Structures are given as C-alpha cells and as structure tokens.
Amino acid sequence: MISENKKYKPLAILVVLLSIAYLVNPTLGIFEFIPDNIPGIGNLDETVVAGLLFAALRYLGLDILNLGKKSNKEIEQK
C-alpha cells in the first residue's frame, strides 16, 4: 500500500541514499556500527539497513521485493 501523503518523501530519499552508501561500504569497515567479525551479531547492522532501504523504496513507490509477482488483476484477467 502506497501512502497518498508524501510529506516524508525527502526523508525517504535520504534514507535510500544513506542506506546504499552504508551497504556499499567504500571505507572497508571503518564506518560500521557493529564490526562484522563479532560472531552471531556481526551482520545485524547490514540487515537492519537493508530493511530500511526496502521500506524507503516501497514508500517511494518501488516495491522491489514484489517485482516478479503478478498482481491480482493480472491473475484475474487470464
């Protein structure tokens, strides 16, 4: 469901840009909230940032988690 109220659009764009910068991680681990070498929890920060990225993209109208799925309208038309 895409919100009709887009007053948080600039914030969503900022979250997308920061999330991509964090996930690409050009500083090779210098800019990291939880070091990856900690067993069990080392990659939790990347998981959270990826979730924020997906949520912000969905808010902006790009639901990449459902790109390959057919909508109910497409299924009913066949």
Overview of this protein structure:
- By secondary structure, the protein is an all-alpha fold.
- The protein has one domain.
- 49% of the residues lie in helices and 0% in strands.
- The chain has helices spanning 9-24, 44-59, 72-77.
- Helix 1 (9-24) runs antiparallel to helix 2.
- The chain starts with 8 loop residues before the first helix and ends with a helix.
The overall pLDDT, averaged over residues, is: 80
Helicity range: 40-55%
Written as H for each helix and E for each strand, in order along the chain, the element string is HHH
Give me the Rg, rounded: 16 Å
Return the domain count.
Answer: 1
- The rounded distance between the terminal residues' Cα atoms is 24 Å
Number of helices: 3
- What structural category arises from helix and sheet content? mainly alpha
Overall form: elongated
Low-confidence spans: pLDDT under 50, at least 5 residues? none
Give the DSSP E fraction (strand runs of 2 or more residues): under 5%
Number of strands: 0
Largest sheet report:
none
SSE topology:
Layout: H1 9-24, H2 44-59, H3 72-77
Helix pairs in contact: 1-2
Name its key features.
78 residues; mainly alpha; 3 helices; 49% helix; 0% strand
Question: How would you summarize this macromolecular structure in one to three sentences?
Answer:
The protein is mainly α.
